[in-house]
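Supplementary Methods, section 5.1.

A reviewer requested that the exact input to the structure prediction be made available. We therefore reproduce it here, unchanged from the version used in the analyses.
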Amino acid sequence: MAIIFLYFALFLGVHLLTRQFVKRGAARLFQLVACFLLLFGFFGFRNITVLNDTPHYYGAYYQLTHLKNYVESSIFTYRILLSFEYGYQVLQHTLIKYVSKEPFTIIIFSSLMITWGNVKFISRQTRHIALALLMILLSGVLFDQYCLIRQSFALMFFYAAYPYLKQDRWKPYVALIICAAFFHLSALVLLILPIVQHIPISKRNVAIVLGIAVLISITVYELFNLLGLGDTKYFLMNIKRNTFPIGAVLDGTLMLTLLMTCLWLYRKMGMTSYDKTTFWIGICGLCVCIITPSFLSFFRLNIFVWPIIYITFFRFVDADDQMTDYGAQNQCQALRRQMMMMVMGLLAVRMAMILMFRNEWYHLVPYSFYDFSDRFHGFNMYWENNV
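The structure derived from this sequence is encoded token-by-token as follows.
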């Protein structure tokens, strides 16, 4: 566990070093390069025992490289038995056929894309790139991204689509979300955002939306049966659960706390404008958190929401962000600085507790790098037996 927290400390070191730069452009470039190398080095060369889904993707790639008919066939052939979306099938087949048959290729390539996408997205939201990434790392959000490879590819499309959503340009937004759905079908839920963001912000409307989420939570299994989805893998997996979803409840509590803190600071700092898109994304995230304890698989939907919430929260507690687009300037700097330190500390304690008592959520400990000199690497046979 000490290795993990030493890794976290490197981002804090990058942030402190950045403060020594006089020119803002040089500081930004230093953070971009340093953060990219830190993220890609840690995740791109991780062992296949690190992060839950790593052995599944590694194992799938490994198996397919040994099928001669598959390797020699067209990369555009869709294979329903693979249980992968078409876009990911084409990507994986392309890597196998034209790049490398080494199964670790999918880990390196996905880490490269996820790292590039996150660093680029965050650099557009704040000039304190390293500190923002440290917060998101401590939250566990990035661990989920590097674990859930297909859905993270879809998230990269959402990152590209997000500016269009805020500009109310629905055509390019919808086009990019459809592309995202070719990597993970859960991205289709993002098509409701251009509609939801036009709902007037009021206590009544928020209560109605959250009330609908509570109703869905109560009737989720009946709805699945009504839609003819009662025999799906996720339905059967959730209906067999007999343990209390403490992680889902804690995530919901955390999200509510972050959003309420942003609202409190909004009023405390005397802000005069707001971002309807970000507001309703936060409410949609709360809706998912309300449903998740009843149907745990819904937590995957919030992989699209958490980065937006954390980067928004980061801007609220970043004392150097003037928040001029919210109608504030140099307000409550001491308070915001204190809240930044407090939140970072709480997230660090939370991550330490997870690593000590719930390591199965991430499988980060013990951390190790992939051994390229070893010609044989075992992988999780569960995937092979249940494909």
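The chain is about 65% helix and 0% strand. These observations are discussed further in the main text.
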